[in-house]
Amino acid sequence: MTIRSTLAALAALAAAACAVTPAASPGPAGTVAASGPARIGAGALELGDWRRDSQQAVAARFSQSAARRYGAGLALSEVQADLARSDFRCAPVRAGRGDPPDAICRRTVTLSGCTHTWQVHVFDDAGQARLSRLRALYDRRCAADDGLLGGPQ
Questions:
Q1: What sign results for the dihedral spanned by CA atoms 51, 56, 59, 60?
Q2: Confidence check: pLDDT of 83 > 80
């Protein structure tokens, strides 16, 4: 491998390490259709193996888990209550540019010098307080790097 191709490969890996992307087929603005059942199952929302897996693997697992757990048509209050049981804090979003979610639910854990942040953005496209789509994101910010979702520095 030449130095140029090695540098290009390292640059691609570094860019991928900073990405926070949902894993399922993206819809508008990176969202996925809520595809889960009409009722929320028992147990906590699966966060992914965030202590051992790569940031990309955790983001993919979390995005898939959220999309499978929450079905279109669920009341936003039910979704937010379920997220609260998994230690997420939800807040409404003021109308703004682009396609803002109706609420953002966030959970943060700080462990071993790293801040882990999960977010679920919930959307109600019909204005009836019912889930239509969501975006699930994960970010890991450690002392040596920068994350995308914020958290304590």
A1: negative
A2: yes
Predicted confidence at residue 31, as pLDDT, reads 62
Q: Compare 85 and 145 and report the one with higher pLDDT.
A: 85
Quote the pTM value.
0.72
- Please state, in angstroms and rounded to a whole number, the distance separating the CA atoms of residues 18 and 40: 32
The residue type found at 100 is: P
Please state, in angstroms and as integers, the Cα–Cα distance from residue 29 to each residue in 66, 96, 136, 138, 141, following that order. Answer: 17, 14, 12, 16, 23
CB-based contact 142:131 (threshold 8 Å): no
Pick from 24, 60, 62, 18: nearest CA to 44:
62
Q: Is 58 helix (H, G, I), strand (E, B) or coil?
A: helix
Residue 149 is predicted with a pLDDT of 56
Q: And the tokens for 111? A: 């462990």
CA pair distance 88, 102, nearest whole angstrom: 15
